[in-house]
Amino acid sequence: MAASTAATATFAAAKLLASSSPKLKQPFSLLSPHKKPTTLFSSSFAAAPLRRPQPLRFSTFPKISAIISVGDKLPDATLSYFDSSDELKTISVSELTSNKKTILFAVPGAFTPTCSQKHLPGFVEKAAELKAKGVDAIACISVNDAFVMKAWKEDLKVGDEVLLLSDGNGDFTRAIGCELDLSDKPVGLGVRSRRYAMYVEDGVVKILNLEEGGAFNVSSAEDMLKAI
């Protein structure tokens, strides 16, 4: 009997407290007071399984250095060559390209098969057609010394159609970010240049056909003729 009386009293007190408490107003909303409040949670959301937070992952690979791109001004560097009198000469990139329309193409190495059989001979063969399109000068660049470039020119019987330039220390190649590390190859090529062909107007790159490594897919004289 005492327990029943206590329970009745507790229920009555709870009812009195509820009736005397202020009623909750509509939840605060940033929306207009005339609009219905947005439902913050849905049953589908509540039913969705919780996902464990994923740990942050950082790449262990170094960032690839930027290379020269269309619209860039070529950095200056000094290149060397032997002229028709067998005198060793130097020429800067700015001399070669300032106020001119110039094609520069690079090969991984003199006397290497693709460079000797396709890349350089292609530009020699198409030189007249390229110059008919307004090209003032065509130059082949390789990370070889000037003596090797001279011997290569003589071996392929290249005339004045294409200037063969030595980037002996790879200064220009590094400046445009086109190094090609072949140190792991058994022939001992070391660090050379990626294969490319670029069309430059007054020192600014207008067309750039850059190969992946030493591949020969987009940098031929025919490709440049189509692009100009």
Automatic annotation (TrEMBL):
<dbReference type="GO" id="GO:0042744">
    <property type="term" value="P:hydrogen peroxide catabolic process"/>
</dbReference>
<comment type="function">
    <text>Thiol-specific peroxidase that catalyzes the reduction of hydrogen peroxide and organic hydroperoxides to water and alcohols, respectively. Plays a role in cell protection against oxidative stress by detoxifying peroxides.</text>
</comment>
<dbReference type="InterPro" id="IPR013766">
    <property type="entry name" value="Thioredoxin_domain"/>
</dbReference>
<dbReference type="InterPro" id="IPR036249">
    <property type="entry name" value="Thioredoxin-like_sf"/>
</dbReference>
<dbReference type="GO" id="GO:0045454">
    <property type="term" value="P:cell redox homeostasis"/>
</dbReference>
<keyword id="KW-0575">Peroxidase</keyword>
<dbReference type="GO" id="GO:0008379">
    <property type="term" value="F:thioredoxin peroxidase activity"/>
</dbReference>
<dbReference type="InterPro" id="IPR013740">
    <property type="entry name" value="Redoxin"/>
</dbReference>
<keyword id="KW-0049">Antioxidant</keyword>
<feature type="domain" description="Thioredoxin">
    <location>
        <begin position="68"/>
        <end position="228"/>
    </location>
</feature>
<keyword id="KW-0560">Oxidoreductase</keyword>
<protein>
    <recommendedName>
        <fullName>Glutaredoxin-dependent peroxiredoxin</fullName>
        <ecNumber>1.11.1.25</ecNumber>
    </recommendedName>
</protein>
<dbReference type="GO" id="GO:0034599">
    <property type="term" value="P:cellular response to oxidative stress"/>
</dbReference>
<feature type="active site" description="Cysteine sulfenic acid (-SOH) intermediate">
    <location>
        <position position="115"/>
    </location>
</feature>
<dbReference type="GO" id="GO:0005737">
    <property type="term" value="C:cytoplasm"/>
</dbReference>
<dbReference type="InterPro" id="IPR037944">
    <property type="entry name" value="PRX5-like"/>
</dbReference>
<keyword id="KW-0676">Redox-active center</keyword>
<comment type="similarity">
    <text>Belongs to the peroxiredoxin family. Prx5 subfamily.</text>
</comment>
<dbReference type="Pfam" id="PF08534">
    <property type="entry name" value="Redoxin"/>
</dbReference>
